Amino acid sequence: xxxxxxxxxxxxxxxxxTASKTEEKRIIKxxxxxxxxxxxxxxxxxxxxxxxxxxxxxxxxxxxLFATQDFxxxxxxxxxxxxxxxxxxxxxxxxxxxxxxSGDKNEVYSxxxxxxxxxxxxxxxxxxxxxxPFLRIIxxxxxxxxxxxxxxYADKLYKLLxxxxxxxxxxxxxxxxxxxxxxxxxxxxIKLPKDNRGIAIKKSIKKVVDxxxxxxxxxxxxxxxxxF
Length: 228
What we know:
Blueprint (H helix, E strand, L loop, with lengths): L9 E4 L7 H12 L5 E4 L14 E4 L13 H13 L10 E4 L8 H4 L3 H14 L7 E9 L2 H15 L6 E6 L5 E2 L2 E10 L3 H20 L4 E6 L3
Parallel strand pairs: 1-2, 3-4
Antiparallel strand pairs: 5-8, 5-9, 6-8, 7-8
């Protein structure tokens, strides 16, 4: 960036450069006062800041916003893109947003800013692929300080879940941050119908979870019903 714009003052705004509140305030102040011309940052910049002279916002590698197990990825991506676009063109000045992506033709890009169209599109997708509010979700989290043990317990739970007739589940999957507070994490996602079938399946899941707990007393896990 500095090679390409050698005549501009460039600042970084991320977890490393803003570890100090003093440094964070300095960066924001200098950019607000036009002492810095280009501000390169993470999603931290998407909301909460007012730059009166900002007229151009660029989002790089936008496809990464959708690279997650969360079915709400499109919804969150639209929210962030709308927040970013709102940073530019304030105080009656023209604003522009450029979205850079590696050939991704996701329809969400063209719907940014059109809230009704976005909502309609996302509701259609959730209905087609059976996600809330059209059914319920149960998340089972298996964790352990030993990575091998985490996968070992998850494999045992997987085999038990496979015994439940008609169960629609996926996993185990490691989240983006596989290790949290010293523990490795694996997720199972279960789709539960909102009818009598769901009630019966839920009872079967409880039996499986109880058996898993009894057979593996040292296993650490928890169930999260309707986590979203």
